[in-house]
Amino acid sequence: MAEIDAHIPEGELTEKWTKLRSSMPLVNPANKRSIEIIVVGSGLAGASAAATLAEMGYKVKCFCFQDSPRRAHSIAAQGGINAAKNYQNDGDSTYRLFYDTIKGGDYRAREANVHRLAEVSTNIIDQCVAQGVPLAREYGGLLDNRSFGGTQVQRTFYAAGQTGQQLLLGAYSALERQIGMGKVEMFTRHEMLEVVVIDGKARGIIARNLITGELERHFGHAVLLGSGGYGNVFYLSTNAMGSNVTAAWKAHKKGAFFGNPCYTQIHPTCIPVSGDHQSKLTLMSESLRNDGRIWVPKKKDDNRKASEIPEDERDYYLERRYPAFGNLVPRDVASRAAKERCDAGYGVGKSKLAVYLDFKANTERYGRIEANKHNIHNPDLETVMRLGRDVIKEKYGNLFDMYAQITGEDPYELPMRIYPAVHYTMGGLWVDYNLMTTVPGLYALGEANFSDHGANRLGASALMQGLADGYFVIPYTIGAYLSKELATKPIPTDHPAFVEAEANAKGILDKFIAINGTKSVDYFHKKLGKIMWDKCGMARNAQGLTEAIAEIQALRKEFWSDVRVPGTSDSMNPELEKAGRVADFIELGELMCIDALNRNESCGGHFREEYQTEEGEALRDDENYAYVAAWEYKEGVKFELHKEQLEFKNIKIAQRSYK
Amino acid sequence: MSTGNMNLTLKIWRQKDNKAKGNLVDYKVSEISPDMSFLEMFDVLNEDLVTKGDEPIVFDHDCREGICGACSMFINGRPHGPKEGITTCQLHMRSFKDGDTIVVEPWRAKAFPVIKDLMVDRTAFDRIIASGGFISVNTGNAQDANALPIPKSQADSAFEAAACIGCGACVATCKNASAMLFTSAKISQLAQLPQGQPERYRRAQSMVAQMDAEGFGNCTNTGACEAECPKGISLENIARMNRDFYSAKFVSEEEV
C-alpha cells in the first residue's frame, strides 16, 4: 500500500498559498491562445473555471448534459455561502473559518486546502458583487449575513432562499460572455463517457451528443471535471434527477483514485418521503434552523396534533443535548439526533419518520419587535403573529411556498415535518493541492473532488468551495502543468487512443440495448438505493456493510443480464442515458460500502454503530484512521486502497463537541 | 407501484424528431395518488411504456423543485398547468380530479423548435444572455463588496428580476411568442444596480437585437407572460427595458 503525495507546499500554513501562487510557473498570453482546455460540467465549479480560464486567454470547451449551462444543479442551493469577511464584527477571521471547517469535517480534511479555501472566501463575495449578483442587503445598503450550522459567527451571505441560483447565474453570465466572444465553445446536451489518456496524460474526452446519439471526440491539453456529486446512488436524494457520477467514475476507471467514497452528507431538514412513487426529495434550507426550533413529543407514539401538545410536553432535543449550539449543530449531528428520536419511537406524522421544525416562537419574537417598531403598545397575540409572519415570509417565503406545494400543508400555521435525506457527498475524486487527480492533466473541482470538507461539510460551504476552485484556485494551479505542455501540439482525434476510447463507449451503449431484459433501469436504481440507504446510510455496521457488498454484486449481475433499454444508441434515448448512469452507480455503491467497512471508526457523516461514545456521539480513531482513503480501480470492479496520512500541525485534534 | 385511486386520460404530444410531424396520442393511467407530482405521474406512465417495450415520452426535467427551469409542459392550454406561481415539477396530482382528461403539449414558438415529444430547444435564451446579459468584469481583484453600498429597495428589486429561471413559459403563453419578459428581466436586474451602469444602454440594445434575430415576436401588452410566470417576474421590467432601449439612442456615447 503506497502513500500518496498531496504536493502540499512547504512553509507556514498561512503563507503556503500566497507563496505558491507567487512562484507558480506561468504561461505567456501568446502561448495560452494555443492551449485547449476541456471543462466537463457547468455548475459553480465548472462555469467559474471555464469563464476564468477563457478570460485568461485559454481556448476552452465546456460540456453539460442539461439544455443550458444555467440549469446545473448548483442552481438549487438555497441557504448561502460562507466567507470570512467579519462584516458583523463578531470575531470572524480566516483562521476561524479554517478552524470551524476542519472541526466541522471531524478532523478528516487537509489543513492546507481548508486554509486556502478560507483565504479566498472573501474574494468570492467581492467577485460576485462585482458581477451584479443581488445578495441580500441591510437598510444601510451593506451586505447582510445569517448563521449556519457548526459556527457561532454570522458569516453566511445569501440571496433569500435562492443563493445557489444567483451565484450560478453570475458564473453563467461570465461564461456566456466568453461564449459570445467565441472564447468558450459550449456543448449543451452532451454527456462525457470516457477520458482519453495518452502516454499517461489526460488528453481529451469522448462525449455523447444526447440529441443525435452521436459519439464525439474532443482533444484538450488538460481535462477538468466539475461534474458534481454522487448522492443519487441512493436513488432518493435532494440531487437533481440527472445528477450522476459517470464523468468521475469513468475518470476513476482510467486511473484517477477515488477519495473517501463513504463520506456522505445526510441533510437533517428535508421534506419526508410520502410514498413509493417519490422520485426525489426536497431540501428545506438549513437557514431555517436560524428561526425554527426542532422538537418531538416527550411521550412515545403521541398522536395528538402539534398544536395540542403543550410546551412542557415537547422535547427540544437539540437544545437539550447541545446547549451551546442548540438547533445550529452541524448537519451530521442534527441528522443522527433526528434518527435517534424516531428510532426510539418519538417520530411524528403518518410515517413516524419525521420531527417538527417549528417557527412559532420566533414568529412571535419577530412580531413583538415589529410591533415596537410600529409603535404598537400591548399588541394582541393575533397582531403579533401577523407581523411576525411577514418577517418570516420575507426571509424564507419561497421555502414555505415549496413546502406547502409538496405537502399540501400550510407551514405558517403548522410546524413543518422534516426528516434527514441524502444531500451531498464529501467524497469524490482524490486530488492533490493543485486539484489534479492521480492522472496527470486531469483535474477535479467542486463537489466532484474530495478535498475540503473532511467527513462532514458545514452548511454554506459547498458554494464557497465550488467557486473557490473555479475562480481562484485552478486558474493558478493549472499553469504549473500547462507551462510544461507548450510543446504539445493538439493531438488529432484519429489517434488510436481516441479510437479505442470511442469504441469502448460505444460497446457499452450497444450492450445495454442488446441485453433486452425484462426490468427497467429505474427498477435497479431503486433497489440499489434501498440497499445503500438501509446499510450504508445514516448508520452503518460491519455486518450490514458486508451484506450490502454481496447484494450489490448480485444486483450488478442481474442488471447486466436483465435490464431493458428500449430504442437505439444512435438517437435520442433518455433510458439509455439513465442505464449508463445507474451502471456506474452500482459499481460506486459497492466501493462506498467497501470504504465504509474499511473505516473502523465513526467520523462526521460516516457513523459506524460499533464506534460511538456513551452519549451516542461519533468516536474517531485518530491513531489508525487519520488518513484519506484513496481507492485505485482494478480490472473487474476491484479496488486497491492507498492512504494519504493527514497531519494536523495547526489545530489540536480533539473530540468534537457542540455541547 | 402507484398507491392512489385516480384514473386519468392523457393526450400527449408525440413527435419523433424536429422534422417529423407530431400528433396527440391518448394514454390511460390508473391508481394515481394525489400526492404524486405531475412528473411522477409521467414516470409511472413511462415505466409502463418501457415495460411494454414502447418508447417512453421524452420531456425536459431535472431539479424537480422548481428552480432549474428545465421542465416545460403546456398543460390544458397553460404553461406549467393550472396553478399559479409554480413550475410543472411542482404541480401535484391533487390539482386534478379522478376521471379528468389532461392535454399535454410542448412549448410552442418558432424560436423554440421541438426536439422530440415534449422537449424543445431553448438555446435562443442562452444566446440572448451571451449578447450582453452580464457585467464585463474578469475574475480577479474586485474591490471589497461593501465598498459599494446599494439601497435595500434597489437591491431587492434587482433580485426580484434576477429570480427568472429561464423556463420559457412567458414565450410559450404569448400569442406573439415574445421573449420580452425574459430579456427584460436580465436587463432590468443589471440596470438597477450601480455595477450595471457602464454598459447599461449598450446592453439593452444588443440584447434586444439578439432577441429579434432569434425570431421571437413582439410585445402587444397582453400581460399573459406575467400571469403565467412561475417566478412572478413583473411586466414593469419590460417597461424598464423599453425605456433603456429607446434612451440608448440618445445617451449612448458609442455605436452599438
From TrEMBL, chain A:
One of its GO terms (biological process) is anaerobic respiration. It catalyses: a quinone + succinate = fumarate + a quinol. The active site is at residue 331. GO terms for cellular component: plasma membrane. Residues 525-658 form the Fumarate reductase/succinate dehydrogenase flavoprotein-like C-terminal domain. Its cofactor is FAD. InterPro entries: FAD-dep_OxRdtase_2_FAD-bd, FAD/NAD-bd_sf, Fum_R/Succ_DH_flav-like_C_sf, Fum_Rdtase/Succ_DH_flav-like_C, SdhA/FrdA/AprA, Succ_DH/Fum_Rdt_flav_su, Succ_DH/fumarate_Rdtase_cat_sf. It is found in: Cell membrane. The keyword Oxidoreductase applies. It comes from the Bacteria. Its EC number is 1.3.5.1. Its main location: membrane. Residues 37-463 form the FAD-dependent oxidoreductase 2 FAD-binding domain. It is a peripheral membrane protein. It is an enzyme of class 1 (oxidoreductase). One of its GO terms (molecular function) is succinate dehydrogenase (quinone) activity. Keywords: Cell membrane, Electron transport, FAD, Flavoprotein, Membrane, Oxidoreductase, Transport. Belongs to the FAD-dependent oxidoreductase 2 family. FRD/SDH subfamily. This is succinate dehydrogenase. It comes from Pedobacter duraquae.
UniProtKB/TrEMBL annotation, chain B:
Belongs to the succinate dehydrogenase/fumarate reductase iron-sulfur protein family. One of its GO terms (biological process) is respiratory electron transport chain. Residues 155-185 form the 4Fe-4S ferredoxin-type domain. This is Succinate dehydrogenase / fumarate reductase iron-sulfur subunit. One of its GO terms (molecular function) is electron transfer activity. It comes from the Bacteria. Its cofactor is [3Fe-4S] cluster; [2Fe-2S] cluster. Coiled coil: none annotated.
